[in-house]
Specification:
A: 243 residues, mainly alpha, 79% helix, 0% strand, extended, B: alpha/beta, 8-stranded mixed beta sheet, 43% helix
Chain lengths: 243, 349
């Protein structure tokens, strides 16, 4: 029987904690430390190789937590615009919404691709910067120094790129495509509401507006009343002091 | 290879220590014991107005009303005792009040900037005046809360004795600022929308400003946390705060983006709220403008632009070494900040 390695027992303890009643916020912290620990381990392993392949370690979407390989989130968006049955198909095909949805998804995908190209350039630029920092180092850099170089190179490359017109244009196109998607989503929901006999979006918007106005008017009235009562109390205090 | 195994061995040991420690930190206990006690003095829809309970020290007369941004939560001002700006002000004897804007839901999507400034904030100021039995109060506005405080003071100058703005943007079109460039570009060609902005999207946006630092590097220095419990608790509280971002009421967010970021109306003297022009020149009280030299969210030049609107005899500024949040929660900068605030507020102008 082979004794468990320290690494195995750590993973077991981690899994036990994740499945335990530990506060969710602590589970999130533990998960973040575990993932980043693995990331830096992989980075250092690669950095110590004779011919390292490091550009992917500055992958922006991955750094932000998106699983870029699976594109699960994107499939989720596209699935949400897909009719589920014949009656639904009839409902949506009878309008322009289905066409709009396809166009919006295409625009969104194009904007995302444009941004991804820039992100790939950032990775290459960061790698270039990293190699320069490594070369300038008077001695063979320690693990700590390699991590510092990685950070410095990545942030410098990102800062340089993210204020350039092409980045801003790509980002703007992405937001625009996303807002178009939201408009289509509302059109679809509106049709669905009509189909199911639910209140329309316009009715809900009017309710929100009226509720908001009521809340504000009530609060103003309450403030005026409180102010009047306060003033009266002060007047009474003055009169009592005079007596 | 020694360097790699060195990293792995130490990381494994520290990660185990972290797991062991987290099992013994009660998050509910932290919530209740780690913050200065306060009382609720006013409530309106999701908004709450709190007064922090005074400490046993000689009390100052004029209350300070702290106005935080709509983004993230105001408890950053009292995050842990040793970094609590609120606690330091209480120790100086200031009556401290705090506006908590709450968590807007879809029914709040029509709340406008005018509602926030001339409605909710106006009523909070009146409540504090009555509660403190004073005619004028001091305002401490932080970040977007500073923008609201500037607008409020310009519109209602008679209510405010002194105004402190902390890491507050004034010129929203500073070229060096990534946030301001992104904020400007987001609203170009977009139709006005009153749908709430999800807090999660805002958290992601802020984490994108320094992607490698904020998403990876901060989880690397495990050894510093597991050997210092106070540091670990501070880290945990900060993690909670960073990820605790309320949705933004759609109408106000849209107005803020267009009027401030895209059109820079406050700085260009073209802003109107409730059909009234908001002119910073109308501010007649002393203003202390505090900003951070390494702020990656509000560029120091953006804050410093306030000087162009306030007469020199009323204007003072304090530059702090640090970032947007570090400026007021780092122990050293907080010490300098509170000393200056205390002497400035105590001075007879």
């Amino acid at each position: 029987m082979t004794a468990k390695t320290t690494s195995d027992s750590i993973i077991e303890q981690f899994n036990r904690l994740i499945e335990s009643s530990l506060a969710t916020e602590y589970k999130d912290v533990l998960t973040a430390f575990k993932e980043q620990g693995e990331f830096y381990q992989q980075f250092l392993n690669e950095a110590h190789k004779a011919t390292p392949d490091l550009a992917s370690f500055w992958d922006i979407p991955n750094t932000l937590g998106f699983q870029t390989n699976t594109h699960d989130w994107f499939h989720g968006i596209t699935r949400s615009a897909t009719p589920l049955s014949a009656s639904w198909a009839q409902l949506f095909d009878s309008s322009s919404s289905s066409q709009n949805a396809q166009e919006s998804i295409t625009a969104f995908q194009a904007a995302l691709s444009a941004l991804n190209i820039i992100h790939a350039d950032i990775g290459q630029q960061a790698l270039h910067e990293f190699l320069q920092l490594k070369e300038k180092s008077p001695t063979s850099p320690s693990n700590e120094e390699l991590c510092q170089f990685w950070l410095k190179a990545g942030e410098a490359a990102f800062k340089e790129a993210c204020q350039q017109p092409d980045y801003l244009q790509a980002q703007q196109a992405l937001y625009l495509a996303f807002s178009q998607l939201k408009i289509v989503q509302h059109e679809l929901v509106s049709q669905l509401s009509q189909f199911l006999g639910l209140p329309s979006q316009q009715t809900i918007d009017e309710l929100h507006e009226n509720l908001h106005q009521l809340r504000m008017q009530f609060a103003e009235h309450r403030e005026q009343t409180a102010s009047t009562i306060h003033a009266l109390k002060q007047s009474i205090d003055v009169l009592q002091k005079k007596q | 290879m020694p360097p790699t195994s060195y990293h792995s061995k130490h990381w494994t040991s520290h990660f185990k220590q972290l797991m062991d420690q987290l099992q013994h930190i009660d998050s509910d206990h932290l919530k209740n014991s780690n913050h200065a006690p306060y009382e609720l003095i006013y409530q309106e829809n999701k908004l709450r107005l709190f007064r922090y309970l005074p400490l046993d020290v000689p009390q100052k007369n004029t209350p300070i009303l702290c106005v935080y941004a709509l983004i993230n939560r105001p408890y950053i001002l009292d995050i842990v005792p040793e970094r609590s700006l609120v606690l330091r002000l209480l120790k100086q004897g200031y009556p401290v009040y705090l506006v908590d804007w709450g968590y807007p839901d879809t029914s709040d999507c029509m709340t406008s900037l005018n509602d926030y400034i001339n409605g909710l904030l106006y009523r909070c100021v009146q409540q504090v005046k009555r509660h403190g039995d004073v005619q004028k109060i001091d305002l401490l506005g932080i970040c977007q809360g500073g923008v609201f405080s500037l607008c409020y003071t310009a519109l209602h100058p008679s209510c405010i004795r002194k105004l402190i703005t902390l890491v507050t943007p004034v010129d929203f079109q500073v070229k060096e600022s990534t946030v301001e460039q992104w904020g400007t570009s987001v609203f170009i060609n977009q139709e006005p929308s009153h749908h709430n902005i999800p807090g999660l999207a805002l958290t992601l946006l802020f984490k994108t400003l320094k992607p490698f630092q904020l998403n990876r590097e901060k989880y690397r220095q495990l050894d510093q946390l597991v050997h210092d419990k106070k540091q670990l608790i501070f880290f945990l509280e900060m993690e909670k705060w960073i990820n605790d971002s309320p949705d933004l009421a759609g109408k106000a967010a849209d107005e803020f983006g267009r009027s401030f970021y895209q059109k820079n109306q406050l700085h260009l003297k073209k802003l109107h709220l409730g059909n009234v022009a908001v002119l910073l020149e109308n501010i007649r009280c002393p203003v202390l403008n505090i900003f951070a030299t390494s702020d990656h969210i509000v560029a120091p030049q953006s804050s410093a632009a306030l000087q162009q609107h306030i007469p020199p005899k009323l204007y003072q500024e304090l530059k702090l070494e640090g970032g947007h949040i570090g400026a007021f929660i780092n122990k050293s900068t907080q010490h300098a900040l509170v000393n200056r605030v205390d002497s400035w507020l105590s001075a007879i102008n």
